[in-house]
Amino acid sequence: MGQSGDEAGAAVEGDPRPQAQLSVVTGRTADPDSPAPSSRPAATVTIVGEAATRWARLQAGRDIPPEIRAKAAADPWAFDPDAFRAPAVPVDTPSRAAGLALLGAGGTVLDVGCGGGDAAFALAERATHVTGVDARQEMLDLFAADAAARGVPHRAVLGAWPGSAAEAGRADVVVCHHVLHNVVDLPPFLTALTAAARRGVVVEMLRQHPMAWLDPLWERFHGLVRLPPATDEDAIAVLRELGIEPEVRRWERVPRPSADPVWVTRRLCLPADRTSEVAAALAGLHRPNDLTTITWTT
């Protein structure tokens, strides 16, 4: 899951709080043998492309307006860390296949926005060591406890990405699942992923922002008309502006259980006494299960 998944350090899928404001950033394609990103000299190429600007604009538009957030009776971002526990047996997905292919006979793994460690533990059979990075301590605690129980050599790094890149160090394979939709300023985030990987990077994301399916409810209950959500195509366009041509595979995951009306009510910043209204409104909404695996070598 990534910048548990909201800030770029752990990724709780569907937590759209922006990680950073749009800014002019610099970056470059990583040299696989160079030091960790933050220990390098400043990059000399300014990257401010149309795709990066579009991504930032759409992502910034996903935040909850302060006037709505101020009326919330409960924290709309609250979540149960245990819901992000990795399965005991990894699910075979295109993302897992891509990670295993990069690992080959074996190697180290860095999971950016690790959450409970789903992405890293899916590669554990060939991983000699896994490092989990997350912005939330409760996620790292879950990751570390599960790694120990599985007998996986591991290290946990607390912090948002890319600020935590120097402490995290480099690995043979970098995985980052369900984090990109929690990032506003995407070029430095992607540049740091590339710089941290000796062999390659595997990103998994929903084809559009994970909370976009609730947009009709924001309009229904708050009169809030959202901007169109950023998509996987938008993220791929930013990669291409960085000089990276990724391999892309689109697929569908097994449908998840229906969304909990109590959770959705809280996410919409509505009082608990409106849960029945939310439940009725949810009946007509489709929750997408379309995923994209984006892979590139370094």
Structure, described:
With 298 residues, the protein is an alpha/beta fold. The chain has a single domain, classed as Vaccinia Virus protein VP39 (Rossmann fold, 3-Layer(aba) Sandwich). The protein is built from 11 helices and 9 strands. The strands form 2 sheets. It has a 7-stranded mixed sheet with strand order 5-4-3-6-7-9-8. Helix 1 runs antiparallel to helix 9 and helix 10 packs across helix 11. The longest helix is centred in the middle third of the chain and has 14 residues. The radius of gyration is 19 Å and the shape is globular. About 14% of the residues have low confidence.
List key phrases describing it.
single chain, 298 residues, alpha/beta, Rossmann fold, two-stranded antiparallel ribbon, 11 helices
What is the compact description of this entry?
The protein is of the alpha/beta class and 298 residues long.
Topology:
Layout: E1 25-26, E2 46-47, H1 50-60, H2 66-69, H3 94-103, E3 107-112, H4 118-121, E4 127-134, H5 137-150, E5 154-158, H6 165-168, E6 171-177, H7 186-196, E7 197-206, H8 215-222, H9 232-241, E8 247-252, H10 261-267, H11 275-282, E9 290-297
Parallel strand pairs: 3-4, 3-6, 4-5, 6-7
Antiparallel strand pairs: 1-2, 7-9, 8-9
Radius of gyration based on Cα positions? 19 Å
Distance between the first and last residues' Cα: 22 Å
The proportion of residues in beta strands is: 15-25%
What share of residues is helical? 25-40%
Report the top-level CATH class: Alpha Beta
Biggest sheet details: 7 strands, mixed
Largest sheet: spatial strand order: 5-4-3-6-7-9-8
Decide which structural class fits the backbone.
Answer: alpha/beta
CATH homologous superfamily, by name? Answer: Vaccinia Virus protein VP39
Global outline = globular
CATH architecture: 3-Layer(aba) Sandwich
Protein name: Methyltransferase domain-containing protein
Keywords: Methyltransferase, S-adenosyl-L-methionine, Transferase
Domain Methyltransferase: 109-194
Pfam family, one: Methyltransf_25
